Amino acid sequence: xxxxxxxxxxxxxxxxxxxxxxxxxxxxxxxxxxxxxxxxxxxxxxxxxxxxxxxxxxxxxxxxxxxxxxxxxxxxxxxxxxxxxxxxxxxxxxxxxxxxxxxxxxxxx
Amino acid sequence: xxxxxxxxxxxxxxxxxxxxxxxxxxxxxxxxxxxxxxxxxxxxxxxxxxxxxxxxxxxxxxxxxxxxxxxxxxxxxxxxxxxxxxxxxxxxxxxxxxxxxxxxxxxxxxxxxxx
Lengths: 109, 115
Hints:
heterodimer, A: 0% helix, B: seven-stranded mixed β-sheet, four-stranded antiparallel β-sheet, 11 strands, globular
């Protein structure tokens, strides 16, 4: 079993939709949780990170962590075609960052 | 501030050869991590260097090695290349002030093809 599980999709939504991306993890030692966005042929770009459980909002993006159920979520409001990318969730304990497989998202006009 | 740079961007090598990849971190960042990204395995942690010392290591064979210089630039070496080493190799930098790698910034990657 992988430490971070993520549905690879692909996920296709119309412009303006609310997108929900989810991951589960098994490593109780994870302290920080992050979401990265990766466009084709580019390196991953840090969207946001959270410490422990709770919510964090940045513009149209909201990250949510529930440590009791080991669940990580990213919500995208008013999705745009420019949001089309692969979204990677991850968790980190000392010295190591572990990623999910990534979810391919397409937002069509 | 300039981002993380990696050279070369593309490489084609033959089985059995060795290869060296280079990474220049964001100015002021002292931690450099290396990752391998493949369609089948996703993004996997290779190792992390901080102040010229390997601080953490993933589960890769000894053919994969790295080093960091006093200016925080880092190199990664893969010896005796195998077909399965074909991947996108990504470098990420962070301040490194804490060992927990929570805010890393990635470079564009080096696409290695082994034939």
